[in-house]
Amino acid sequence: MDTRTDATVPRPVSAGPEMEALGRFFQDVTWKGVIHEGGMGPGTPAMTGIGHSTSQVIQDGRWIVVDSEQDQFLEDGTFVLKWQLHWVSGWDPEHREYRAVMADNYGHADVYRGRVEGDRLVFESIRDTGPRLRLTWDASGPGVITWRNEMAAPDGSWFLIEEYQMVPAQPWPPRSGRPTIPEHGRRPAAGSGRPGGRCARAARRSGSSSSTSRPHAAHRGPR
Questions:
Q1: Which single residue of 16, 191, 207, 222 could bond 200 by disulfide (Cβ 3.0 to 4.6 Å)?
Q2: pTM beyond cutoff 0.85
């Protein structure tokens, strides 16, 4: 490649401080919580969700990938289903905001835009792509990340689908002061349980009348 060609070929972007800010919300976590009655669609019962998420960095730190699983049970302990989510999020320099894509085992595939507000990370599904969902990670409490999945009602208000207290596998920040999310190819074994993974769920699951990170068919996001 000569000097002239080398100067005109666009180069990949480097990961910046925005990715460091994002990393604290996507750790290896486990959780147990409640999916509210009607949260996965009209007439659906309340359920207990037990899940786990694992996270890894790809493309030299430009994206964080979260894989999540959650088992759901009726109040009497009867197993209902296993929900699985794949979530990829990172900083989009062109749009100057966080973006995420998700796919789950209900066949949902969605794009989200996000922002960091102090100790909170908020992702919302992009309008006109189906039911509107809002996923929130709150890392303000010690040793826990609170994850909420909400869906927009016809009047524009938000109603809660589910909420979990996610417990990270290790404290944040690590003692070295550097993110411990592994690079692709060095991914740790999945933990047990999980409402987050999140995923890092942020992504959606089927099961709610509109869609949400567990929206109608309950779209759901990474924990």
A1: 222
A2: no
